[in-house]
Amino acid sequence: MGELAALFQRFDWFSLIDVAIVALIIFGLFYLVRGTQAAPLLRGVIILGVIFGILGSVATLPAVSWLFGNALPALLIAIPVIFQPELRRALEVLATRHDSQKKVVSLSFNGEGKRKVKVGYVIENPIWKTSYRLKLDRGEAFLQGWAVVENLTGGDWKDVELVLVTDGIVVITCTILINHLLRKLAAFSAIVLGTLVTSLCWIVLALRPSMLGAVISIFILAIGEIIQQPRYYEYISRLAPPEQQGTYMGFAFLPLGIGSLIGGWFGGRVLHYFGEVRGQPELVWYVIIAVGLLTTLLLWIYDRIVKPAREAAVA
Length: 315
Prior knowledge:
The chain is mainly alpha-helical. The chain folds into two domains: 2-96, no CATH class; 167-314, MFS general substrate transporter like domains (Growth Hormone, Chain: A, Up-down Bundle), CATH 1.20.1250.20. Helix content is 67%, strand content 7%. The protein has twelve helices and two strands; from the N terminus they run αααααββααααααα. The chain has helices spanning 2-9, 13-32, 38-58, 62-82, 84-96, 167-181, 187-200, 202-207, 211-239, 245-251, 254-277, 283-314, and strands spanning 127-137, 140-150. The chain has a two-stranded antiparallel ribbon. The longest helix has 32 residues, at 283-314.
């Protein structure tokens, strides 16, 4: 115990640097052999070394000190010999700066000359499949709906939660009530309000990335859709001349088409940048929120500034 107390009394900044260097060496060894059979053995050797070192400092144990002092050099020589294939593979991975799970793919083409080649890859994902069964029993028909989720990823689905439907139930049960409560609100103001609600709904999922957060976000999203969608078509129908209401209502789906074309491209770019490049996929929700708030702001500017100025100019 006296040796241990004297060791702490001599501890200074150089000792701290010494300990930090040793810790970095141990971390580097663990990083080098991670995912190999040598990792558990290295972990065990380090744990035994710490235990024997503490026992040798606290108590006088000549036999233990002799055993540890003579066995440690032998283990340091035996580890590289026993686990030579794993260590070589780890060194190759470290030298090429590639992950051990990555594969090298070589493509060869017959013929000569330059050509453009597009290469894609497919990642196995869960599949959602629906099927229906019509059962006839003594003149009565029963229609059954089946929802099948098939896991093709090869990973174990442990503690996976599944929600069948949220948005549809909210829309069916709350549309009449919400439209009744907001019946006195102007059509374009309802569009702005609904867009604002659908934009802010993702804050819940951003702050609470869980199944409950997803359900709450979708619930708020459905409320925003209920506020915005019916009044949007009402506003379009009022803009149209009496003879062209059908044409105007057909063009009412144009923003949805544009959004479908741009949304996939934009969402893929955002998810790739924040998910794969920066490693912060949670920031995707804040980008979506920002886009929604910008849209809400532009709608509000049109309703309060652009449209009144145009009406005043016409008058």
